[in-house]
């Protein structure tokens, strides 16, 4: 029996497993598909909330702590696995921000280098950006990561660790409770047990908790994205405008996202979303209209009230814990939210106050 049994192999589940294994504990990680193939794979990889000044303090605290982790984590995973997560710190440009004063006030209070720049600066950084912008907001410290490569690297690292047992294509059908303890989980291959059970099930977390007569206000929110095959250098950094964004990759490809759709667990893609994403992307970078759209996909975000994740113990159980409900910011908040939970599990001094994330 492992010290810890983790249900859910997205970026939150894998980072939790990595930290527990680093601390010397045995971990079994169960994933219904292949690790990292749901929302963690489907997102854009921006290592910040899209408009950080519009978020509540609990999200900002997790975000600030997490941002500084990715450069080090990316280098670690490259060294240990040979897989480069392609962390890029090229800054971010915000176009047509209608609450600019609020953004700048937030930056002063948070100590963030956000500034208003003129058109010469904007087009010096992104010559192909939306024409006729007289100014923009510029955040030079913001980075992005190629999230499919990040989850691939995390999976490879965990697979190489003797303290970690990965069980993929192993859906959990229910948690098994015996009084105040969860003694294991049911799977099509039989019962799997662990001393402490951690549910990192993303959009599926409420269904899992329902099997022990608990509930969590987490629901799936679909997001569709498209991928352009562009020439290298067409877009050099993340650019946001009117709530939509483009994200460059090192090979010239450009992601454009994303939709917000309340359609349950439906992951289908449609022409209406494709057209909407194409139109917003080509407004941000007009020359993308000359590029082929290679791919369209959808992911299911774990929506929660105000986007604040639930992190900590489940009331009524002595060994059941949750880390879920990150909404649009799973990748952004994962380093901090997993570190906070591991602090609580191992009775360490928590990195931030855990109170705002406790399960009611």
Automatic annotation (TrEMBL):
Q: Which InterPro entries match?
A: FAD-dep_OxRdtase, FAD/NAD-bd_sf, Gly_oxidase_ThiO
Q: Which Pfam families match?
A: DAO
The question of whether Oxidoreductase is a record keyword is answered with yes
Q: Which UniProt keywords apply?
A: Oxidoreductase, Thiamine biosynthesis
Tagged with keyword Amino-acid biosynthesis:
no
**This protein's pathway:** Cofactor biosynthesis; thiamine diphosphate biosynthesis
From its record, what is one biological process in GO terms?
Answer: thiamine biosynthetic process
Q: Per the record, what is one GO cellular component? A: cytoplasm
User: Which SUPFAM superfamilies does this chain map to?
Assistant: FAD-linked reductases, C-terminal domain, FAD/NAD(P)-binding domain
Q: Name one GO molecular function term.
A: oxidoreductase activity
Q: Which residues form the FAD dependent oxidoreductase domain?
A: 3-344
- Give the protein name, as stated in the record: Glycine oxidase
Q: Which organism is it from?
A: Aidingimonas halophila
